[in-house]
Amino acid sequence: MKRPIVGIIGNSYLLNDNYPTHAGGTMNSEAVAQVAGCLPLIVPTDPRFVTVDELLETCDGFLFTGGRPNVHPAEYGEDETEAHGEFDRCRDAITLPLIRACVDRGQPFFGICRGFQEVNVAMGGSLYPEIRELPGRMNHRMPPDGTLEEKFAIRHDVHFDKGGVFCDLLGESVRTNTLHGQGIKTSGPRVIIEGHADDGTPEAIVIKDAPGFTLSVQWHPEYQAAEDPVSRVLFTAFGDAVRAWAADRPA
């Protein structure tokens, strides 16, 4: 049986410091293929190579991945500072209108870390450049050293609003990893924050009145998605939504 296609948003990298590439983490493909049960397809997010319309017609759903570059603050009306870090304006040019189009069409997507932040910005929200500098906030960044297991280790709780989509799927709270520096400052008009860390940092969002799957999380559920019970539930639900879209895809 033909698997539906999930476009995995790729990131730009310099391989060996001089060879330009578009790439996606293997764990993203593993989660899409082995847990969601879909065909992973890495997208070169650059408007020179792809258009939003082409992606919408080619893919059945999208995984908006994490990545070191941040959404440029001009996208939410603020000036660039050193605290905002690195940027990828080509990715911004594809992902932000793609998110809005998916919301309008009911085409499913799942946002992770930077993808979570992209969803908020695409829907009219803004970001803090460095949440660990805010009073009362913990350091959500990954440890600078250590093994992959240590960097992706479970580090804090996320609490969900009763009656929300996340609570229905996962219960009132879960334990997650954390590997991000930025976070939601103001939520977009249709962005519903359903989950928070203990320090108040938004961790889980959905889009109000969207006809399709719009779940996004600030942590990284793609890590060991088949083994982690929280990740497995999220990627299974995403895969089910993508299959439903593919089966009843508009002409």
From TrEMBL:
GO terms for molecular function: gamma-glutamyl-gamma-aminobutyrate hydrolase activity. CDD domains: GATase1_2. SUPFAM superfamilies: Class I glutamine amidotransferase-like. The keyword Hydrolase applies. Keywords: Hydrolase. Gene3D superfamilies: 3.40.50.880. The keyword Hydrolase applies. Its EC number is 3.5.1.94. One of its GO terms (biological process) is polyamine catabolic process. It comes from the Bacteria. GO terms for cellular component: cytosol. It is an enzyme of class 3 (hydrolase). Pathway: Amine and polyamine degradation; putrescine degradation; 4-aminobutanoate from putrescine: step 4/4. PANTHER family: GLUTAMINE AMIDOTRANSFERASE PB2B2.05-RELATED. Belongs to the peptidase C26 family. This is gamma-glutamyl-gamma-aminobutyrate hydrolase. It comes from Aliiroseovarius halocynthiae.
